[in-house]
Design goal:
single chain, mainly alpha, Glycolipid transfer protein, GLTP, 9 helices, about 60% helix, globular, Glycolipid_transfer_prot_dom, ceramide 1-phosphate binding
Length: about 200
Amino acid sequence: MSEIPAGGTWFDTIQKSFADVPIAENEGISTAEFLEAAEALTTLFDVLGSKAFLPVKNDLLGNIKKVRDRQLAAPAESETLQELVLNELKTGKHTATEGLVWLVRGLDFTAQALRHNVDNSAVELSNSFREAYGGTLKPHHSFVIKPIFSAAMSATPYRKDFYAKLGDDQEKVSAALSKEVAALEKVVSILKTFQARKEAQW
């Protein structure tokens, strides 16, 4: 984890923020920047500081790799995530498409947990993550995976400790976190709408 600059926040240390991900007029989301921002966001699980979050982080990274592998294999057909999906499905494969579905679920889980916590200043992180899990990933997880994720929810640090790790100036932390969550929510919403369309399914 990079060192937070004096007077800065954890968000100053990441390579790419979701607020920096270009969204075209037709809501096309730039694949390269999206993957960079998703990768950067996974390091937030390092800030949470428990090994219990490794499976959550690795799950996200595994799905990022599936999408990136397709992007590298067919760059001209993968400039936006939507193009990547539609062009992969034309080949009769759906490895990256399925990876993106799971990646969006993981990002939705992260966004909902952080949104719940930002909006409810008296609530502990574990409650926010547990609530978000129930509405995003849990319905899709097998009985083998559920306990692994439940262990992670229980291993979250106290709210005050987590926010302190994001930076000394809590006003700046709050502003940066709110900005990132709003940007993440927008991207997730666009992708969920797209993935619900018939031509984006296999």
